[in-house]
Amino acid sequence: MRLRTWILLGCLAWPYPIYAEIPIDSIDYDVPVTPLPTEKYQFEILSTLGYSDQTGRTIVDIIEGYEINLALSVDTLAGRPVNGLTPKFNLTGSSKLIPPGESTPLTSTDESGILRFGVIGGKQGMDTLTVSYGDNRATLHLNIISLQINDLPAAPIVLGGLNWSDLMQTRLSWADDQVQVNFSDAVKNRNGDLVTVSGFMMPMDSSLKQTHFLLTSSPPHCFFDIPGGPAGVIEVYTDEGIEASWDPIVLEGEFELISAPQTGVIYQLKHAKITNP
Asked: Which domain holds residue 71?
């Protein structure tokens, strides 16, 4: 039995209203609508890590320096996706917003009513992210967890070496369907130099000695969640291999910038070897 709905077409000159019998499945709720600042929408920040506290606030835990992927979902109250909505972002605290257009090509909601963006955790504490459009507003609280609280080691400070705070100032954006990289002067001045940098190994395979791996700014806890995003990782090549370890390491090698990344890597270290901090 097919469900049907009755729609009022109008009275015209008839003494009784005229109705039309239309199958309910003929109404396509997946067809997107264009945004209007005066409209009220279903407005929500999506995260696979979110939970509610005792007061009803939505919380997401982030380790210092780590990146999380988020998304804004916008639908009409009837459930139709809103396409082309460009929201405002307000992030209070020490965390850093990775806005739409930096890690993804879209700067407004797509045909599914989704807009993806990210956040890199700052210093320990509680930060607040608010996304708004017109009278629509969604708030997410970011619980920044210290590396020390989680008993995670910190990379040693290397005097005169590459500084992760400088490396992570690099900005990525999309233009003409390509990733554009804007390196800071502090990073550009080291291009081609023999440099020293500390960090944590993210192995690329199960070999005891790694000849090709990633060096991250913070201890990795998931292969699909690189700490700091593209600016928080260096692709490393070694000639003889370096023994895999979860402890922080200090490397020396030839530093190279990748201005037209094809794999998401923007930094490389070649002919790397272990050195003392």
From this structure: 41-145
Please give the structure tokens belonging to residue 22. Answer: 């239309």
How far apart CA 208 and CA 111 sit, in angstroms, is 46
Average pLDDT by stretches of 10, the chain with 277 residues: 36 38 54 94 92 87 86 96 97 93 86 94 93 96 80 76 86 74 90 94 87 86 62 92 90 92 86 87
Instruction: Name the phi and psi angles at 187, rounded to 5.
Output: -85, -45
Q: Which residues pair with 7 in a beta bridge?
A: 20
Per-position DSSP letters for 115-132, written without gaps between them: EEEEEE--SSEEEEEEEE
Same domain, 177 and 86: no
Q: Is residue 104 part of a domain?
A: yes
If one counts every other C-beta atom within 10 angstroms of the C-beta of residue 152, the result is 17
Evaluate whether residue 81 is within a structural domain: yes
CA-wise closest residue to 170 among 185, 160, 190, 157: 185
Let me know whether 246 and 181 are in one domain.
yes
91: which strand partners? Answer: 129
What is the amino acid identity at position 172? L
Tell whether pTM > 0.90.
Answer: no
As for how many domains the chain has, the answer is 2
Distance CA 211, CA 243 (A): 9
- CATH number, domain of 253, equals 2.40.50.870
